[in-house]
Write a structure and sequence with these properties.
Layout (H helix, E strand, L loop, with lengths): L11 H12 L5 H8 L3 H14 L18 E8 L5 H12 L4 E6 L6 E7 L2 H14 L4 E6 L13
Helix pairs in contact: 1-2, 2-3
C-alpha cells in the first residue's frame, strides 16, 4: 500500500509529537504524552495514524560512525555520459548493494549524482571506488573528503 502524506493534515499536537519523536524516539508514550500535554492513548493513536499515512517512515537509532569504524566521510560527485534506463538501473543496483553509501541524490546541473559515503579510511574508500567502477561505467568521479562534520541531523523543523 502506497503512503500518501498529503492526505494526513498535521495539527499542532501531531507536530509536537513528531518533535518529541525526532528528539528521542526511545521515549515512552507516557513521557511523550506528558511533554505534549496529552494522554497516552491519543498520542499512540496519532503515532499509529502518522505511520499508516507515511508521515513517520521509520523509527531507528543513530549510531556514532566511529564506533563502527566508519569515521571517514567522502562526498562523491559523479558525472556520467550515460543516461539510458539500463545504465541507470545498473547504477542504482550498484549503489544499493554498497552499504558504505549512506545517501545518493540525482542532481540538476553539471554534476549528475552526489553520494555520501562512510568508510574507515582512504584505503577503504579506494576499495569502494574500485568496486563501484567495476559495476558500472562512470565518466568522471570526484571524491571530496569531509575534514569536519559541522552539522548533521535527521530532525526536520516541525
Amino acid at each position: 500500500m502506497a503512503h500518501d502524506q498529503t492526505q494526513h493534515r498535521l495539527d499542532a499536537l501531531d507536530r509536537r509529537i513528531l518533535g518529541e519523536l525526532q528528539a528521542d524516539s526511545g521515549q515512552s508514550l507516557d513521557e511523550i504524552a506528558r511533554k505534549v500535554g496529552s494522554s497516552k492513548t491519543p498520542v499512540w493513536n496519532r503515532i499509529r495514524k502518522m505511520r499508516e499515512a507515511g508521515v513517520i517512515r521509520q523509527q531507528t537509532v543513530i549510531v556514532d560512525p566511529k564506533a563502527l569504524d566508519r569515521g571517514t566521510c567522502f562526498f562523491v560527485l559523479i558525472r556520467t555520459s550515460e543516461h539510458e534506463a539500463d545504465w541507470q538501473r545498473r547504477f542504482l543496483q550498484a549503489l544499493l548493494k554498497r552499504p558504505e553509501v549512506l545517501e545518493a541524490h540525482r542532481l540538476a546541473g553539471e554534476i549528475d549524482y552526489i553520494l555520501k559515503v562512510r568508510v574507515a579510511d582512504a584505503a577503504a574508500y579506494d576499495v569502494f571506488y574500485q568496486a563501484l567502477i567495476s559495476d558500472v561505467r562512470i565518466f568522471n568521479v570526484t571524491a571530496l573528503l569531509s575534514m569536519e562534520e559541522i552539522k548533521a541531523t535527521t530532525v526536520l523543523p516541525v
